[in-house]
Structures are given as structure tokens and as C-alpha cells.
């Protein structure tokens, strides 16, 4: 169970108190009625699903109720940071961790195979 | 003495404190502190169970949680019975009943043992190959047969009468394992001031010090030092020591699950105590001091009762005072087994021989063996054993050939070396690395804030373990901000440093043999099965594991994984690290469901939500249905009425007189603020700025993709205040959806949202006499048709309490929905009922509500829509504003697929035979004679018998439905095909005049 820092409550709380809200920093177009099918597809349907760093939304639904953003490593599930909604996407340079080349479990090895 | 094999002066149990238990009906004496295994061995019982597949006689292999063989059924009384308990882990209590498993008619004579003779037919993959054809036989013959034959224990049938507890805990440092390493780490961390939780699965701390009596720490006997250290730690405020507590799961962000066995060892447990307690620990840092597990040797017939791990024999002798035999053989590839022989020899047991498959054992142990006069056969191997229900001899050969020498023994100890317990480390998603020099998998790359210390980290040597653990304890304490205390120093001495170890098969069980050399005892996997799996094409360890079931038993391969890997590696001619290790999963050892669910059972499993009128409904005979967590009155049968009768009566009564309906479960959201209308304009397809205060409107909410998400009536109470209703099931997600947009997309809007679902009780009064019923009860509101027309809302009083009174209808009749504060709900309901009943009105439930709304073609979101339906598909185009520049879903609605011809549209269906009621979910086709697969046009979404129409009615999603009005379509059912005619969805009062009645 994840331990998540709520930037509004300024506390680490258990995942039980939160709800995941999908990718962060995807702004709803202000002219949404007029955008093309391709633009709508990019805005609504397509997501990156990265291996590594992801910026995502969380809501402290059983706490303060606020939505906020967090940067998490999808491999280790470690949170790099969380920050208030509306704050700019932080510039976290580089990949979080290089892929380990030591002996791996079979599953891990298979997981890296494309 | 409790048992002939108890040796006076040996062990740590108190001879005066005894307990009695039965094993397969026979009574045995034990000492307090015995495990079932030690007590049986004390009484000379080695035969304890039968193996899973071949039903071979099996004994006690180990003295710990890795035990694969000695699985027993333990009961306190009829309801308190647990199968598959590991005999070396279960402590004896006075009066316990123990039974063996997987045998019939008796343990000594088991009919299933015929499987052993038939074993050539039960090779690895037998089930996969044999139970393939005919396909139909799988469900009726094969699966029931396999299920009956498989499984060792029998699950209890009675409800578990015990209770279980659950506890959350936080600490700076959690230490798993309280052997030398764990205790040292705990001392250092605690002295530095850290909040420490130290847990160990055994009843007392000490770990390997239970058996290793040659260890001294600070001049003190190791086991005594451990107990003294535990006492010292216990006395510290910042330390919690949990014994009989297994750290079974290591999850994300240092969240570790522990299970504490509170009463399973007590003869007469206090009824207020939980049987087990689940600890959910969030630790800032974790230290893994989980030790290592000795491996068995893999050779022919290595599974007979009396053959066991050397360290286990040492535990039984040094801790429990039990000699596992009188004439004991040793077969080893590792020095540690020698010490078992030394201890037994000094206790007066004959050591037949130490057979060491190495040419050069450790010099120190070899010298000591010679000194004690023990015959050591280096470069020799045990290639077979004899003995039906207990080992009687071992067959020894010189490595590389020569004739076999049979040596009589009544117990055979073995050791192939020690496997570090990296289970928790691996569960933490750390990656293990293979250390070729020692042939072990060790913690490699850490994924979480933890450290491994001692033998689970591959650290050999007592002093090295102590120093590593002290350093780790202090480091972790400092890392969590603790600055107290001085340095802890400890000095350890032991008699011998152990060398050696092997993995895989030895002499006589090699690659060219087909002997039964067991790798996984519990699942009866032999070395030859693993080789067969490889020959049949399983080249990854994951496939080999599943094909042979190696490591898939309840012990999860604690003994077998490394051997299995080594054997596969040999056949594949690939190095062990290239084959990899299967991933360890939680739990480390089996955890009861009781501990995991704790109090969440029975009524507390999923708490019911009840409306304020629930008690009245119950008293008036309502049958309830579950809607989400809500208990809703479904129908109110009178004496002798079936559900069908009751619903028909309720439907007639509402249309002819009136009915009362509890609508309290409807979701309610108060939307307040200067921008409330603008916000609702964005959230719903309708226009809200044109709605006048005091009026209501039916609104549709879409998702951004254009599909219907929710619906409900919204009343405007003031310029800046709306009373929004949602579907019963949709309330939380609609609130979440609104908050999401308000906080993140439209934060400039000044709006405040409050969920008021549980604050308002809602009483729907529907039917021609609704006004007559309510009029005298209402104060301050003119409810005449002219002053209070359909789709209006007013605030005032009813029965002297505040109300928000809605004029609205979900039945097609003139109707009201009386909202009162929840606490007044029942009283107001009773007051209304007191007026309604004498006028001939009824209370009606959700089933009648469904029929009445269907008669009018009112949809239910989630029943008539399924997340792929647009408002246009549902004939609700009128509710979609064409003037608004934006609302959620405005762009989605224009997607090419959503404006395409031929979409499924909601229509009415009338069966040609009015008596036939369609089944909801039934498929619809145009041509019933079309060959299969037929083209499905859609499906029935709602279908009822309508008493008011005198016929069946239905709603359906049908491709191009609007263009098919009057067409005949067909609903094929297993036994017949039903002809239907497509119609509009309003089956009664098409002009809607009754609404204004």
C-alpha cells in the first residue's frame, strides 16, 4: 500500500485515503467544441503509459478532498514528489533510475524484452 | 518422562510441566513448550503423513516453517479445526486433537499408496496430458475426480467461532527475525533511540541459537544471551517485541504485514483474546534478519520417515531434549551437519557414520569427529535407503562406483547447505543476485528502504553477523533522525566455521537415472520430473515450475527451489543465474482468512445503508433489495400475495389512487455560489441559466466522450442555489466528477459542492390523490395546480418541519417528492401514510417504481444505458442544448461514430403475444432463420408485465431503432423465438395529461 504525501494537508497518508485520477497536465482545450478529431483523440484517449517517471493526478478523497499532482516511478512505485494542482510540471531531469544489469529474475528479464 | 526418546538433562523444557494430546486417537504426553513434532518424536513417532501424489509415508523433515511433510489437522473442538498445520510450528496444548491427513483407511495402511506403484504413469505433466479428451469429460468426470483426490487436508465445514484483531503500527525500524542478527540490530537501533518493532515467528527469540549450542556471546551461552537481550529490549519504552509473529508480506513503501498467533498455543484461551492479530506496520526503515534454511540432500528414497535435516535433529535434541534416533546416520555436503552428529554423540546416541560427498570436509569438524570416534566416509554418498514406515538402513557407495554398503540406521540426518531466506527482500521488489562463489542467491539491488543482515544476506561467521547487524541497526536509527545512546558492542565465539554446500542431485541420482530422488516433498516432485520437463521443452524456470509443480506447494519451495534450479541448469547446460529464480510472493507462510479479514465478516463485511424509513418499511412487510450498499424496499406483499400479485396491485393503486415511495437513496448534491448556473451549464447538456428559481428541470450529464453518465432532476431554489439529484448508485462518482471539473478545469468558477444524500429523507407521493393527501400537511406553500405546476420546487413546512417540496414525477402521475431533514423522515412518512391509507393509497417499492417508469418510457441510467449510449440514442435530444458553446461531452458527441447512421437506439418493444414477457438482456435479430452466427441488432434493456397496460412492455437498444418503428423483429430464446414489434417507448398516457392532474 502506497504512502502518499498530500501537499494540501502537508502529511504522508495511506493510499486508502486517496483516489487515483489519471495522467496530470492534460488541459481541457478551452475551444473544445471546435477541435479536430485528431486533437480530441490526443486529448481524451491517448496516454503514454511510460516505464519510469509518470506525472499523475491524485485526489485526497477521504481527507481534504483536493486534487493534486504527483510524480511517481512506475517501476519502483516511488513518489519523487507531489505538488498542488495548477503548479507547473516540475522539471525532473533525466530518467529516475538506470535499468539494472545485475542478475534478474526471469520475470524481470522478460519484462524488459520488447 | 514424556516420551521414551526424551533424554534427561538435554533441552530447555521443564519436565514437570506436561500436556496431553491425541494423535489419530492415541493419547500422548508432551511437555509444555513442545511442538507437535517434538512431542511425537519424543514418543518415537516418525510417520506423520502421506505425500500428496504417491501417498508415500512421510515423517518430520524439519523443525521450522519450511516443513513440507508433517502437515496435520489440529482441532480444539468441532468448529475450531484447522487442516494443513505444520507439526514443527504448532505448539502442543493440553487437550488438543491432532490427525494425520491424506490417508485412508489409516496412516500405516493407506489404499492411496497404490499410486506409488503406478507412479510410472504419473510423470510430470500427467494431468495436462491425460485429461485432455474428450473435452466434455472435463467438467463432469476429470475435474471432480482430481479435486477429490487432490489437496492434503479437509477444510472445516463449521463457521469459525473465533475472533481476530487488526492493528496498525508505525515505527522507525521494523526488524524481521530475532536471531543473533535481529537482536543485535534491535539493540543498536533501540540504544540510538529509534522506535523499534522486532518480530519473530517462534515462541521465543533466538533463531538458530535454539539448536546452535556452540555459540557464546559476551561469554554467555547464545540462547541465554538471546533471552536476556530480549528482556533488556522489552524493558525499553521504544521497543516492541512480538513473538509467534510472522512477517508474511512486504509491500510498497515499507508496509509490512505481520500475523501474531495469540491463542493457538493455549489450552484454555481467554475468550476475550483474539485468536490471531494482524499487524499492518508502516516502518520508516526495515531490517531483514530472516536467517537461512538448510537444504536436504537429493538422492534415491530420501523421503522415508526418520530422514530429516541435520539442524532439525539438533533443534530437537538441544531445545526439546529429544533424540530423533538411537542409531543415526548423517549424509552431508556441508560442515554444519557434523555438529549435529557431535551433539547427538555426546548425548549418548550412536552415530552410524557421517557420509560426506566431499573429498575434503572442513578440517576442524573432521578432527573433532575423529576425536569423538565417529566414522567419517569422505568422498562417499548415500545412494538409497530402506525401511517401509521408517528408515532402517542407508546404502553407501564410494563416489564414482564400487559396491554398496548397507548401514543400519533408525534416523538419517542430511544437509546440502543453507539457503538464505530472501523471501521478504524479494517481495519488497528487491532484485536478487547470484553469488557464484558460494552458489547462493543474495540480496542484490534494493527497491525499498531496507537492509538485510546476517545469513539472509549471505554473511558467514558469527562475529561478522553481529558487527553487520549492529551497524545496520545504528545506521537505520540515525537515518530516521535518532541521535541518542552510545555504541553497542558484542563479542561472539563459536566452535566451528562451516564450509561446503551443494545444490542438485548427488551420486546415484544423476542425469542418467530414474530413481525417486525427491526435490519437492510436498508435491512429490523428483529430480527426474524436472529433467523430463526440460526434455519436453520447458526451458524457463517458470515453465518448469508449473509443469512439475516444483515449489508450488504450501511451503513455496523453501527447500526445493535451489535444487530444482540446479537440476534444470545441469540438463539445460546453462548457468544458474541464466535460468533465474522464480519470484517470491506473499505470504511467506500461509495466513488464515480470519486474520486477514478480521472483523469484516457477517454484518460488518459490507455494511448496509438504510434509509430513515427503513424500520417502518420492515414493520409493514417490505421485501428488500440491495442497490449498491442500500437496502431498498422492493415490494410490500400482503398476506397470500406473490411478488407478481403485489407489484400488480401496487401498480394499479398508484395509477388509480396514489402511492408512497421511499426515494431517500437518490443522490443529492447542493450546488451553491454566484457561478452555480454557469457550472451546471458546463456539467449538464441542458441550459440552466434559463431555469427560474422555483422551477426544476430534468438534466443529463455526459462524460467527455459524449456518452450518458448520469441523469436527475435539478431544482433551482435561488439564483445561486441548486438542489441536484443523481441516480442512487451514481451519487459518489457524480460528486467526484463535479469536484474534478470544478477544482481542475473550471477553478475560476465560484461554486461550492456539498453532498446532501444522507441529509434529506425523500418521500415520493404519486398518483391522482397525491395532492389531496399532502394538502392539509403542508404549510406556507400553495400546492394548487396553478401555483405549483409540474416541475416546480418550493421551500416551506410540512407537519411542522422544514421541507423542500418538489412537484415532479417518475411515474407519469401527478406527484410530489417531499424532502425533509433525515431525522424527521420517519415521522413525516407516518403522518403522510396516516392520510394516504384511508384514501386507499399504498406504499410501493422499487419494482413497482420500475414498472411505472417503464410504462412512461423514462430511462434508468445504467440499465437502459450502458456507457455507450448518447442522449440522441436514448431519444433525449431535446435535453441537449444547441445554443451552449461548451459543456462536458459537447465535442465527444460529434465524433464520427457517434453521429453515424445505424447506431443502437432506445425503442419500445411489444411482443406479438401480449402475455409473453421478454427476458432482460435477450438478443434481438431481424431474421430468425438466418444461419448462425446470426446478426445481433441489439438487446432488451428493460422488460415487465404491465398490469395497467394489460400486457407486457419492454425497452431495447436496437440498431437503427428509430427507423424500424412498426417492424417485426425476433428474440431467439433457447426454447422458442419470440416475435416483437418495434414501438415508441411511451406505453401509457402518451399525451402526458396525467402529470398535470
UniProtKB/TrEMBL annotation, chain A:
Annotated segments matching region Disordered: 86-114
GO annotation, biological process: tetrahydrofolate metabolic process
Gene3D superfamilies documented for this protein: Folate-binding superfamily
Annotated GO MF terms: sarcosine oxidase activity
Membrane spanning residue stretches: none
Domain of life of the organism encoding this protein: Bacteria
NCBIfam families: soxD
Protein name: Sarcosine oxidase subunit delta
Species this chain originates from: Shinella granuli
Taxonomic classification: Bacteria, Pseudomonadati, Pseudomonadota, Alphaproteobacteria, Hyphomicrobiales
TrEMBL record, chain B:
Nucleus in keyword set: no
SoxA A3 domain span: 516-596
InterPro entries documented for this protein: 2Fe-2S-bd_N (IPR042204), FAD/NAD-bd_sf (IPR036188), FAD/NAD-binding_dom (IPR023753), GcvT/YgfZ/DmdA (IPR028896), GcvT/YgfZ_C (IPR029043), GcvT_C (IPR013977), GCVT_N (IPR006222), Sarcosine_oxidase_asu (IPR006277)
GO biological process terms, semicolon-separated: tetrahydrofolate metabolic process
Any one GO molecular-function label of the UniProt entry: sarcosine oxidase activity
Keywords associated with the record: Oxidoreductase
Chain ranges of the FAD/NAD(P)-binding domain: 172-430
One Pfam family here: Fer2_4
Chain ranges of the Aminomethyltransferase C-terminal domain: 904-989
Domain GCVT N-terminal as annotated: residue spans: 613-884
Record's keyword annotation contains Oxidoreductase: yes
Family: Belongs to the GcvT family.
Protein name: Sarcosine oxidase subunit alpha
Organism: Shinella granuli
Organism lineage string: Bacteria, Pseudomonadati, Pseudomonadota, Alphaproteobacteria, Hyphomicrobiales
Amino acid at each position: 500500500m502506497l504512502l502518499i504525501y498530500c501537499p494540501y494537508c502537508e502529511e504522508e497518508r495511506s493510499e486508502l485515503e486517496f483516489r487515483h485520477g489519471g495522467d496530470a497536465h492534460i488541459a481541457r482545450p478551452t475551444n473544445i467544441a471546435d477541435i479536430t478529431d485528431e486533437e480530441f483523440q490526443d486529448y481524451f484517449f491517448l496516454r503514454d503509459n511510460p516505464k519510469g517517471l509518470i506525472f499523475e493526478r491524485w485526489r485526497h478523497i477521504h481527507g481534504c478532498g483536493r486534487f493534486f499532482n504527483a510524480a511517481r516511478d512506475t517501476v519502483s512505485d516511488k513518489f519523487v514528489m507531489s505538488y498542488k494542482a495548477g503548479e507547473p510540471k516540475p522539471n525532473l531531469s533525466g530518467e529516475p533510475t538506470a535499468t539494472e544489469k545485475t542478475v534478474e529474475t526471469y520475470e524481470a528479464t522478460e519484462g524488459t524484452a520488447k | 518422562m514424556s516420551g521414551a526418546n526424551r533424554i534427561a538433562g538435554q533441552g530447555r523444557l521443564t519436565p514437570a510441566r506436561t500436556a496431553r494430546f491425541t494423535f489419530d486417537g492415541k493419547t500422548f504426553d508432551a511437555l509444555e513448550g513442545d511442538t507437535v513434532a517434538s512431542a511425537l518424536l519424543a514418543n518415537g513417532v516418525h510417520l506423520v503423513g502421506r505425500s500428496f501424489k504417491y501417498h508415500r509415508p512421510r515423517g518430520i523433515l524439519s523443525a521450522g516453517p519450511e516443513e513440507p511433510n508433517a502437515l496435520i489437522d489440529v482441532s480444539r473442538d468441532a468448529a475450531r479445526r484447522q487442516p494443513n498445520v505444520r507439526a514443527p510450528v504448532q505448539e502442543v496444548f493440553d487437550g488438543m486433537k491432532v490427525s494425520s491427513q491424506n490417508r485412508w483407511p489409516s496412516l500405516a495402511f493407506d489404499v492411496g499408496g497404490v499410486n506409488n506403484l503406478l507412479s510410472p504413469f504419473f510423470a510430470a505433466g500427467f494431468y495436462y496430458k491425460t485429461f485432455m479428451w474428450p473435452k466434455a469429460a472435463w467438467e463432469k468426470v476429470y475435474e471432480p475426480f482430481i479435486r477429490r483426490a487432490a489437496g492434503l487436508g479437509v477444510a472445516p465445514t463449521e463457521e469459525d467461532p473465533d475472533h481476530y484483531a487488526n492493528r496498525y503500527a508505525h515505527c522507525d525500524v521494523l526488524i524481521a527475525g530475532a536471531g543473533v542478527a535481529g537482536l543485535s540490530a534491535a539493540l543498536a537501533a533501540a540504544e540510538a533511540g529509534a522506535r523499534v518493532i522486532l518480530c519473530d515467528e517462534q515462541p521465543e527469540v533466538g533463531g538458530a541459537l535454539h539448536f546452535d549450542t556452540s555459540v557464546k556471546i559476551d561469554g554467555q551461552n547464545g540462547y541465554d544471551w538471546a533471552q536476556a537481550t530480549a528482556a533488556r529490549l522489552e524493558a525499553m519504552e521504544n521497543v516492541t517485541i512480538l513473538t509467534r509473529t510472522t512477517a508474511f508480506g512486504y509491500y510498497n513503501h515499507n508496509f509490512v504485514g505481520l500475523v501474531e498467533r495469540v491463542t493457538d498455543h493455549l489450552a484454555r484461551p481467554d475468550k476475550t483474546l483474539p485468536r490471531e492479530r494482524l499487524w499492518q506496520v508502516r516502518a520508516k526503515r526495515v531490517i531483514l534478519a530472516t536467517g537461512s534454511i538448510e537444504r536436504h540432500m537429493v538422492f534415491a528414497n530420501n523421503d522415508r520417515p526418520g530422514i530429516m535435516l541435520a539442524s532439525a535433529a539438533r533443534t530437537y535434541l538441544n531445545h526439546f531434549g529429544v533424540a530423533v534416533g538411537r542409531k543415526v546416520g548423517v549424509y552431508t555436503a556441508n560442515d554444519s551437519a557434523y555438529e549435529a552428529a557431535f551433539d547427538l554423540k555426546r548425548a549418548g546416541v550412536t552415530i552410524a557414520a557421517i557420509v560426506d560427498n566431499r573429498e575434503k570436509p572442513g578440517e576442524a569438524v573432521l578432527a573433532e569427529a575423529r576425536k569423538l570416534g565417529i566414522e567419517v566416509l569422505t568422498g562417499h554418498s548415500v545412494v538409497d535407503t530402506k525401511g517401509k514406515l521408517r528408515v532402517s538402513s542407508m546404502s553407501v557407495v564410494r563416489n564414482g562406483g564400487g559396491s554398496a554398503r548397507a548401514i543400519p540406521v533408525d534416523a538419517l540426518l542430511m544437509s546440502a547447505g543453507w539457503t538464505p531466506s530472501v523471501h521478504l527482500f524479494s517481495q519488497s521488489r528487491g532484485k536478487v543476485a547470484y553469488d557464484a562463489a558460494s552458489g547462493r542467491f543474495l540480496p542484490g539491488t534494493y527497491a525499498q528502504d531496507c537492509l538485510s543482515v546476517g545469513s539472509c544476506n549471505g554473511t558467514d561467521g558469527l562475529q561478522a553477523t553481529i558487527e553487520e547487524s549492529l551497524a545496520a541497526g545504528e545506521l537505520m536509527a540515525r537515518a530516521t533522525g535518532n541521535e541518542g545512546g552510545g555504541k553497542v558492542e558484542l563479542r561472539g565465539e563459536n566452535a566451528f566455521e562451516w564450509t561446503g554446500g551443494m545444490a542438485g542431485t548427488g551420486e546415484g541420482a544423476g542425469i542418467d537415472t530414474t530413481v525417486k530422488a525427491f526435490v519437492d516433498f510436498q508435491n512429490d516432485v523428483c529430480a527426474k520430473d524436472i529433467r523430463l520437463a526440460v526434455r519436453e521443452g520447458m526451458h524457463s524456470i517458470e515453465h518448469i515450475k508449473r509443469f512439475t509443480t516444483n515449489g508450488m506447494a504450501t511451503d513455496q519451495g523453501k527447500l526445493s527451489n535451489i535444487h530444482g534450479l540446479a537440476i534444470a541448469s545441469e540438463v539445460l547446460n546453462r548457468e544458474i543465474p541464466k535460468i533465474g529464480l522464480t519470484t517470491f510472493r506473499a505470504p511467506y507462510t500461509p495466513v488464515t482468512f480470519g486474520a486477514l479479514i478480521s472483523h469484516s465478516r457477517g454484518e460488518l463485511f459490507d455494511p448496509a445503508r438504510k434509509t430513515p424509513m427503513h424500520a417502518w418499511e420492515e414493520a409493514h412487510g417490505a421485501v428488500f433489495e440491495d442497490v449498491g450498499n442500500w437496502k431498498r424496499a422492493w415490494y410490500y406483499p400482503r398476506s397470500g400475495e406473490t411478488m407478481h400479485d403485489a407489484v400488480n396491485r401496487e401498480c394499479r393503486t398508484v395509477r388509480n389512487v396514489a402511492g408512497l415511495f421511499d426515494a431517500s437513496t437518490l443522490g443529492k448534491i447542493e450546488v451553491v455560489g454566484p457561478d452555480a448556473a454557469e457550472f451546471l451549464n458546463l456539467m449538464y447538456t441542458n441550459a440552466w441559466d434559463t431555469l427560474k428559481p422555483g422551477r426544476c428541470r430534468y438534466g443529463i450529464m455526459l462524460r467527455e466522450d459524449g456518452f450518458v453518465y448520469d441523469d436527475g432532476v435539478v431544482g433551482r431554489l435561488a439564483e445561486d442555489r441548486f438542489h441536484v439529484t443523481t441516480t442512487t448508485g451514481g451519487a459518489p462518482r457524480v460528486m467526484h466528477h463535479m469536484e474534478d471539473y470544478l477544482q481542475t478545469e473550471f477553478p475560476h468558477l465560484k461554486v461550492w459542492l456539498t453532498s446532501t444524500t444522507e441529509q434529506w429523507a425523500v418521500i415520493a407521493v404519486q398518483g391522482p390523490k397525491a395532492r389531496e393527501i399532502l394538502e392539509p400537511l403542508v404549510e406556507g406553500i400553495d400546492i394548487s395546480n396553478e401555483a405549483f405546476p409540474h416541475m416546480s420546487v418550493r421551500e416551506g413546512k410540512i407537519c411542522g418541519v422544514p421541507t423542500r417540496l418538489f412537484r415532479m414525477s417518475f411515474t407519469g402521475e401527478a406527484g410530489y417528492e417531499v424532502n425533509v431533514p433525515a431525522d424527521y423522515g420517519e415521522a413525516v412518512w407516518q403522518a403522510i401514510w396516516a392520510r394516504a391509507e384511508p384514501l386507499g393509497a399504498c406504499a410501493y417499492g422499487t419494482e413497482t417504481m420500475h414498472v411505472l417508469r417503464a410504462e412512461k418510457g423514462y430511462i434508468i441510467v445504467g440499465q437502459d444505458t450502458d456507457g455507450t449510449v448518447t442522449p440522441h440514442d436514448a431519444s433525449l435530444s431535446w435535453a441537449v442544448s444547441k445554443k451552449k458553446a461548451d459543456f462536458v461531452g459537447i465535442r465527444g458527441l460529434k465524433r464520427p461514430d457517434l453521429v453515424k447512421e445505424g447506431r443502437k437506439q432506445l425503442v419500445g418493444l411489444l411482443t406479438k403475444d401480449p402475455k409473453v414477457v421478454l427476458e432482460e438482456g435477450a438478443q434481438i435479430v431481424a431474421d430468425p432463420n438466418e444461419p448462425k452466427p446470426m446478426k445481433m441488432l441489439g438487446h432488451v434493456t428493460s422488460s415487465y408485465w404491465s398490469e395497467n397496460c394489460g400486457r407486457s412492455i419492454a425497452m431495447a437498444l436496437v440498431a437503427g431503432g428509430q427507423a424500424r418503428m412498426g417492424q417485426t423483429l425476433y428474440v431467439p430464446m433457447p426454447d422458442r423465438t419470440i416475435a416483437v414489434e418495434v414501438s415508441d417507448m411511451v406505453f401509457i398516457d402518451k399525451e402526458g395529461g396525467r402529470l398535470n392532474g
